[in-house]
Amino acid sequence: QLQLVESGGGLVQPGGSLRLSCAASGFTLQYYAIGWFRQAPGKEREGVSCISSSGSSRNYADSVKGRFIVSRDNAKNTVYLQMNSLKPEDTGIYYCATHWGVVAAWPLREADFGSWGQGTHVTVSS
Fold first, then answer.
1. What gap in Å lies between CA 40 and CA 65, rounded to an integer?
2. Contacts of residue 42, Cβ cutoff 8 Å, sequence gap at least 6
3. Which residue(s) pair with 23 in the sheet?
4. Please, which residues have CB within 8 angstroms of residue 27's CB and are 6 or more apart in sequence?
5. H-helix or E-strand containing 72?
6. For residue 58, what is the DSSP state?
7. Cα–Cα distance measured from residue 59 to residue 48, given in angstroms and rounded to the nearest whole number
């Protein structure tokens, strides 16, 4: 069964950090670009970051640039999103998804992504 599973979410104070993981089972992530999306309460889902299959190309939404870092470890079949200097507006459900190709165009388009995880909740609050 092909599956993506996000983990690492939780409750953190403003200014804190979290590292999200996106692990694949049943298939190999290394052939795909991976996107991270988030959906804040009452808002539409938005693209946050993406990384190419090789890891050589990365993109970030302006709202997270300089604070978030996307990386991948193809040997572990896992992609990460390191989130630093978190703000209350970073609160939401974070999803990872596989792109149909090796590099994702920016801004991200959900239609270009096939497999999605179930999401992990991130709450930034004091």
1. 18
2. none
3. 5, 78
4. 2, 115
5. strand 68-73
6. E
7. 8
The answer to whether 112 and 104 have CB atoms below 8 angstroms apart is yes
Per residue in 11-69, pLDDT tens?
Answer: 999 999 999 999 998 889 999 999 999 999 999 999 999 999 999 999 999 999 999 99
**End-to-end alpha-carbon separation of the chain, Å?**
39
CA distance linking residue 96 with residue 81, whole number of Å: 10
Q: Rounded distance, CA 47 to CA 12, Å?
A: 21
Order of all β-strands in the sheet with 18-25: 3-7, 18-25, 78-83, 68-73
Q: Which of 113, 125, 126, 122 is nearest to 40 (CA)?
A: 122
Report how far residue 123's alpha carbon sits from residue 108's, in angstroms, rounded to the nearest whole number: 23
Determine the length of the chain.
126
As a whole number of angstroms, the distance between CA 100 and CA 109 comes to 11
- pLDDT the model gives residue 2: 78
